[in-house]
Write a structure and sequence with these properties.
Number of domains: 6
Radius of gyration: 25 Å
CATH class of the largest domain: Mainly Beta
CATH topology of the largest domain: Immunoglobulin-like
Helix content: under 10%
Distance between the termini: 40 Å
Structural class: mainly beta
Number of strands: 50
Strand content: over 45%
Strand order of the largest sheet: 1-9-8-3-4
Shape: globular
Length: about 625
């Protein structure tokens, strides 16, 4: 399947499932409905093409798209899903092409009309890893904060040879186990495939000839992972690998309810021991179950819904014996009556949207919020003493001078205000892109032309931006971040020369002026434009995350990659604390170990960190959570 992708989330076993889906609405005032091919539920057989459309709240608006693999098939985002894609989508941004000929993700025809038209191709080679239907949940949020959802059920093709197949059963009863993930990994080819077992416990994996390591994993956390097995597969042959999975030696169970007594599904639950960290998720009825080994654990909910706090915050020092189930570890989530509020603005003026503001407490409380379109934020917190930070990739905090607020004491039922931040692009001073758009015939200025800038490495809504030329054909983008930006100008019935400009900003770069375009009368329109996954590199989410000692960071480099590769760790203040990679590397899959230490070899403290992969002038960033 070929698709746009700004950010992608991956299963911890590095199974990459990338899905692009469009949306359709009945009104231009707000997104009230999500349709896939005109339906809120669509089932398709691979290969196929799905035409997708959308209505935005207004022309030139932005959507946030989240794509989930619906593991329990209930059609609801309730915690039993894995997010496989996250993207920002703007009205009017088409597929672009950079200087190397690589296609840049886009979803529209360049018309700023509040409508989206996208052709989604479901290709056989992209679903060869699965033999069972996969249901995806498409959730979108419009700029007016309306939310909608659709379901896309994809039936994969019948696998050919060679393949790996078998069954997964309960080790005690020999009963078949369904919805078990079976993963195969080929070390020589740096290739991995995965599938889910059906109701008879059967699975099949379409693979290439070679030596494969195969293992089974229960996403429901009832059975411990099965030992891996090595198998050699010849061309046009098959191999049988069966698994018998045993229950965990012990369990921790409980419920998570709201202060009104209603169950809260989809909450991540953590059981932390000195040498082990186990996780689970609450079900639709609020019940959770975590499989563990015997030991002493601290149990707590993690990544709570925004604006909620847990009572109690945790259950420390809980002893779990072999063969036992520790029950009744219940939590109540309520909205705290204390708040911390403020505004984040740019140094050059104007509210900064999409900034993550976080509050940390030594008692273990952690809260975060995203600033709104005006740069305002509001954090609901429990009474305690906090450290307040603000983060937006590519920007530095210039006020307060210490970059943080600490200590911030919050009493019961108190609202602490005035915790404001000012940010500027990294490197100091506003960086800008400007130019003019004219008609080639006569050289007259072209007013009202749609100009777009795009930064694939920008981990925020500011990775897309657009403007319209004024009466003189002039446009300007001010206060943008470091990195590589692509610039295009779009007007119905015209093509532009050049078709795309590219500008890279590093520390101390001057503004990019004279980024001019000429509009030429178009001679035709290409139908069914193919959208490809952008080449270059891709940074995967670290595993495990959260972690308490060490974690693995994976990324891929394209065959064309020849520049130096940097993999760095930053703290929430934007300070570099460790360089993990600084060298040229070959194409393929790379795995790096971080032991949670800084460049001096000292262990860093618990908190949020950022991993940044830089190749040339492009960057990708992911968030890491360290819990000691």
């Amino acid at each position: 399947m070929r698709t746009y992708r700004k950010f992608a989330a991956f299963l911890w076993i590095f199974l990459v499932i990338s899905l692009a889906v469009g949306f359709s609405g009945e009104t231009a005032l707000a997104v009230s409905y999500v349709y896939v091919d005109g339906q809120s539920f669509l089932e398709v057989q691979v290969p196929d093409t799905v035409d997708v459309t959308a209505d935005y709240a207004q022309a030139g608006n932005r959507l946030i798209a989240e794509i989930y693999l619906d593991l329990n098939g209930n059609g609801v985002v309730d915690g039993q899903e894995t997010i496989v894609q996250f993207a920002y989508i703007n009205d009017g941004i088409p597929t672009l092409e950079n200087a190397e000929g690589d296609e840049i993700p886009g979803d529209d025809d360049g018309q700023v009309n509040g409508l989206l038209l996208h052709h989604l191709e479901l290709l056989k080679e992209d679903y060869s890893f699965s033999t069972v239907p996969m249901q995806f949940l498409v959730k979108i949020t419009d700029q007016d904060h309306s939310v909608a959802q659709a379901i896309l059920r994809v039936i994969p093709p019948t696998p050919g040879r060679p393949y790996i197949g078998g069954t997964v059963t309960d080790a005690g009863t020999a009963a078949p186990l369904d919805s078990i993930v079976v993963i195969a990994y080929e070390t020589t080819l740096d290739d991995q495939r995965a599938s889910l077992t059906d109701e008879q416990g059967r699975y099949e994996l379409d693979v290439e000839a070679g030596d494969w390591i195969v293992y089974a994993w229960d996403l429901g956390n009832y059975y411990a992972p099965a030992d891996s097995q090595m198998v050699s597969v010849l061309a046009l042959d098959s191999a049988v690998v069966d698994f018998a999975m045993s229950a965990y030696p012990a369990y921790i169970t409980g419920t998570v309810d709201s202060s009104g007594g209603n169950p809260v599904p989809g909450v991540m639950m953590v059981a932390m021991e000195a040498e082990d960290m186990c996780v689970g998720w609450t079900q639709a009825d609020g019940f959770y179950r975590i499989g563990v080994s015997p030991g002493t654990y601290t149990i707590y909910p993690f990544f709570l819904p925004p604006g909620y706090a847990s009572i109690p915050p945790s259950y420390p020092g809980e002893v779990v014996d072999s063969g036992a189930t520790l029950e009744g570890k219940n939590f109540t989530l309520g909205r705290p009556t204390s708040r911390i509020e403020g505004t984040v603005t740019f140094q050059a003026g104007g509210g900064a949207s999409g900034v993550t503001v976080s509050a940390f407490c030594v008692a273990g409380y952690y809260y975060s919020a995203i600033t709104d379109l005006d740069g305002n934020y509001s954090l609901a917190v429990l009474p305690a003493q906090y450290m307040i930070t603000a983060h937006l990739e590519g920007y530095d905090v210039v006020f307060p001078p210490s970059h943080i607020y600490y200590p911030v004491n919050v009493s019961s039922d108190e609202t602490v205000t005035g915790k404001d931040f000012i940010i500027e692009p990294s490197g100091g001073g506003p960086i800008s892109i400007s130019g003019t758009v004219t008609y080639q015939a006569g050289g007259d200025p072209a007013p009202g032309v749609y100009v777009v800038i795009y930064n694939d490495g920008q981990d925020s809504p500011l990775g897309w931006s657009f403007a319209e030329t004024n009466a003189s054909g002039f446009y300007e983008f001010g206060d943008i971040s470091l990195g590589t930006w692509l610039i295009g100008a779009y007007e119905g019935g015209y093509a532009s020369e050049p078709s795309l400009r590219e500008q890279t900003f590093s520390w101390g770069s001057p503004p990019a002026t004279d980024q001019d375009f000429q509009l030429v009368v178009a001679t035709g329109v290409t139908e069914g434009l193919e959208v490809a996954v952008p080449g270059g590199f891709c940074l995967f989410q670290n595993r495990p995350n959260p972690f308490n000692d060490a974690t693995l960071i994976a990324y891929t480099l394209s065959n064309a990659q020849a520049e130096r590769v940097y993999l760095r760790i930053f703290n929430v203040l934007g300070q570099e604390i460790r360089t993990l990679v600084d060298q040229q590397q070959s194409a393929g899959f790379h795995l790096v170990h971080w032991d949670g230490r800084d460049h001096r070899g000292l262990p860093v403290t618990s908190g949020i960190y950022f991993c940044q992969l830089q190749v040339g002038g492009a960057r990708q960033t992911s968030k890491l959570v360290l819990l000691r």
